[in-house]
From TrEMBL, chains A, B:
Cell inner membrane keyword on record: no
Gene3D superfamilies in the record: 1.10.1660.10
Residues spanning the signal sequence: none
Record's keyword terms, sorted: DNA-binding, Transcription, Transcription regulation
SMART domains, per the entry: HTH_MERR
GO molecular function: DNA binding; DNA-binding transcription factor activity
Pfam (any one): MerR-DNA-bind
Domain HTH merR-type: 7-76
PANTHER family per record: HTH-TYPE TRANSCRIPTIONAL REGULATOR YFMP, REDOX-CYCLING DRUG-SENSING TRANSCRIPTIONAL ACTIVATOR SOXR
Protein name: DNA-binding transcriptional regulator, MerR family
Taxonomic superkingdom: Bacteria
Length: 132, 132
DNA sequence: AAAGGGCTTGACGCTAACGTAAACTGGTGT
DNA sequence: ACACCAGTTTACGTTAGCGTCAAGCCCTTT
């Protein structure tokens, strides 16, 4: 018994994620999404898998990754794409990415600390100004 | 008594940061850098301040910020640019940026956790394969 | 003086990530 | 039958962030 999938159209998906259909088609063109084509190429339909992928893509974008970087990262999730001895490569690549993520997080933390520092200086300065 | 400043040329600075002179000029064009012009517009010379700024710019880039976002952020450091009542605005803006940074860090951490999860699954799978 | 090295200012080229418009198709209500 | 709407492909336009010449200036070395 197959579970009933809530398949939605491209504009519905676009609306849901606050982007345009064009963007979604572009992601497909770049090989990031692979929607179901309803009976002999009529419409694209998107299910849970594509929604999950799109979510990852948009998060990647917010974090400043390029589409090709994101593509490589989400392909790590595709078990069927990484069969056999490809597994070792996937694992090794995953480790590299994880380390890069760690570095980025540290840089973010650093930047935040600096901004916070200046922020506090400013706040004090402001307090003195208003107190007089 | 003025401190002797170690002013360097554009290509020296470029070499130091592993970028090209063109990139540095572009940042100036965008209002991110303001080097000293040696005696009646002959050459650009870069001191400690520009080096610090460039460092921030490049870090911002690595973290996926646009040049205009970076510009706004480093302008928070410029005391002289934010005089008088502008201080309140600067402080408020700084708080917004700090919160955004916090969110980004959390997203990064989330992404890392997911990748790590899949990574461990893969590693186990790989172990079982090689053990047979 | 001539040649070279490093700097300068244009100006055009290029890629990524879409925006946007045109023209076509396919189902649906009236 | 006709209009309409939502989807499709194709293709050209646009912006950011530089790369890559071209042509000229200044200073030093030969």
């Amino acid at each position: 018994m197959v579970v009933e999938q809530p398949l939605v159209s491209i504009s519905n998906l676009a609306e849901e994620f606050l982007i345009t259909p064009r963007t979604i088609r572009y992601y497909e063109e770049m090989g990031l999404l692979t929607p179901v084509h309803h009976e002999k190429m009529s419409q694209r339909l998107y299910g849970a898998r594509e929604r999950a992928r799109l979510k990852l893509i948009l998060r990647g974008k917010r974090l400043g990754f390029s589409l090709s970087e994101i593509k490589e990262m989400i392909n790590l999730y595709d078990i069927d794409r990484t069969e056999g001895l490809q597994l070792e490569r996937a694992v090794a690549y995953g480790e590299k990415r994880l380390q890069e993520l760690e570095e980025k997080i540290q840089e973010f933390t650093l930047l935040k600390a600096e901004l916070l520092d200046y922020h506090q200086q400013f706040t004090e300065l402001l307090k003195k100004c208003t107190e007089e």
